[in-house]
Amino acid sequence: MYDLIILGAGTAGLTSSIYATRGGASTMIIEKNFHGGQIVNSPKIDNYPSLANVSGFDFAQNLYTQAMNLGANINYETVKEIDLTSDIKTIITNQNIYKTKSLIIATGATHRKLNCENEDKLDGKGISYCATCDGAFYKQKDVVVVGGGNTALDESLFLSKIAKKVFLIHRRDFFRGNKSTLNKIKETKNIEIITDSIIQKAIGTDSLNSIEIKNIKTENISNLDISGLFVSVGIIPESDMFKDILNMDEYGYIISGEDCRTNLKGVFVAGDVRTKALRQLVTATSDGAVAATNCLEFLLD
Ligand SMILES: Cc1cc2nc3c(=O)[nH]c(=O)nc-3n(C[C@H](O)[C@H](O)[C@H](O)COP(=O)(O)OP(=O)(O)OC[C@H]3O[C@@H](n4cnc5c(N)ncnc54)[C@H](O)[C@@H]3O)c2cc1C
Question: Domain total for the chain?
Fold first, then answer.
């Protein structure tokens, strides 16, 4: 039996582990993929205090090494079922059954799909959700980035250094992302902005070769020949398995206040998967620290 099991080895989960192991709790992290979480996909982080110009991969790797040096214990398994009905909680993975006195859910978020025709068919065959991971395949080719937030803007700039031409397509005529990044985009010669437009269809047999675009104001439909489509239209919380157990908002984020407590005693939530105003590294690390500290307090009761 563990004092604490943490679900997810992203920024929030690894930070929780640092605080919990230093606090003396027997702790295990369960991670379904590779440790590091979403940030490994970011080419550059500039807004984490005291760490300017660091890559997402290096950020995640440093955090992982720090957590491991402080005694983190990560099992790479997939959680199949969770029973939180009694004081001792049961976590069933594809390999083991674990018992724990407390739980921190730090399962983060994943990319949202565009929901255009043929998206699933051409996923990985020209359609990508991560410019850092797949951008290099599109050297001197024409690509599209779709989205209006910071990630879409960052990915457009990143791809403009690799691709021949980048079309940034957004369904509105204004961008939610950072103004200074948008200004850089406007100054970049090989980026063309297309607003008020949606992508209706991805076209290609074995790989993507064009997209069908609809201007939502004029209703005009056109085709654009491209080799790569980078979808950057937001994130969805990884919370499905808790939907009948924990209180959630309409979008599937687990409801908690700044104390990271959920509606169940001994169950805490940290990072992007919880209701909050700002989903960033700085709030993920903060949540990880708060959740673990409140969890250590709970374990003393
Ligand atoms: C491209 C990109 C660029 C970004 N740039 C910045 C930036 O410059 N600055 C900034 O502050 N923020 C940035 N962010 C946001 C930042 O990455 C997130 O806010 C942060 O990663 C959230 O951390 P987290 O630990 O809550 O979740 P995640 O990083 O999503 O980690 C969750 C972990 O849980 C695992 N997991 C999920 N479900 C399960 C399960 N059922 N069982 C076990 N494990 C599970 C996942 O595999 C993952 O490893 C960026 C995000 C992206 C995608």
Answer: 2
Q: So what's the pLDDT on residue 164?
A: 98
Residues paired with 128 in a beta bridge: 230
260 and 216 inside one domain? no
Q: What's the mean pLDDT in 232-242?
A: 94
284 lines ligand 1 (CB under 6 A): yes
How do residues 137-188 score in pLDDT, each as one tens digit?
999 999 999 999 998 999 999 999 999 999 999 999 999 999 999 999 999 9
Residue located nearest, by CA, to atom 38 of ligand 1 = 107
Tell me the pLDDT tens digit for each residue of 75-127.
999 999 999 999 999 999 999 999 999 999 999 999 999 999 999 999 989 99
In a shared domain, residues 107 and 239: yes
For the CA of 271, the nearest atom of ligand 1: 26
Residue 45 Cβ inside 6 Å of ligand 1? The answer reads: yes
Q: What is the DSSP string of 139-152?
A: TTSEEEEE-SSHHH
Beta-carbon count within 10 A of 249 CB: 12
Contact present, 83 and 264 (Cβ < 8 Å):
no
User: Range of 38's domain?
Assistant: 2-111+235-300
Buried b (16+ CB within 10 A) or exposed e, 191-205: beebbebbbeebbbe
Last residue of a domain, one of 213, 231, 249: 231
Q: What kind and span of H or E run contains 67? A: helix 56-69
CATH number at residue 175: 3.50.50.60
Query: How much is the pTM?
Result: 0.85
